[in-house]
Amino acid sequence: MASTASEIIAFMVSISGWVLVSSTLPTDYWKVSTIDGTVITTATYWANLWKTCVTDSTGVSNCKDFPSMLALDGYIQACRGLMIAAVSLGFFGSIFALFGMKCTKVGGSDKAKAKIACLAGIVFILSGLCSMTGCSLYANKITTEFFDPLYVEQKYELGAALFIGWAGASLCIIGGVIFCFSISDNNTKTPRMGYTYNGATSVLSSRTKYHGGEDFKTTNPPKQFDKNAYV
């Protein structure tokens, strides 16, 4: 029962992390920078993996998509690949988890389901590592440019999408570890011994048992009747 509960918790945690990781791809604010005036913010610059935009004080945004994938910086291409791999691995991990959980009717025997659940945990861990690596690579580029005194172009800060990606990656890794430990819980359980009840042995059947290939039967001695019995 405890193993089933841990698998349900692992599934909910992993799915929550996968949803967060998936939501980072279309999120706008991977990096953000603002230009402040004397009274209000005059412009906000932000960018993600697909475009770069600027929003003025009236709320009007002007965006520009990246012109060519081959002309992009190497870290953006790497982040795209890692995040797409994280989403894809999380999708397959959720399918494996559904087949490997004890509360489902598919997947075969308990031993086979435990192996599938462990495989789902490994896939979720890989998904979390891909997301963690992609977000960390993007954040490292931002911080390197921000603290570089020789960098004279627009400097950005960490956006909300990076923190969402880190949180989702952490949940995927935690859920995957719980799935992997669920197989050890199944192996430590000792199988129950089955006993069959044959019923109580009667005295007559115990007397008619075979002993050395011979059948011993109880014979009644001949009755002796008195002469008064015929009267």
Automatic annotation (TrEMBL):
One function term, GO molecular function aspect: structural molecule activity
Membrane topology recorded in Swiss-Prot or TrEMBL: Multi-pass membrane protein
Location within or outside the cell: Cell junction, Tight junction; Cell membrane
PROSITE patterns assigned to the protein according to its UniProt record, in alphabetical order: CLAUDIN
InterPro entries: Claudin, Claudin10, Claudin_CS, PMP22/EMP/MP20/Claudin
Membrane-crossing segments per the record: 7-25, 82-104, 116-139, 159-183
Function of the molecule: Claudins function as major constituents of the tight junction complexes that regulate the permeability of epithelia.
Name the record gives this protein: Claudin
Phylogenetic classification of the source organism: Eukaryota, Metazoa, Chordata, Craniata, Vertebrata
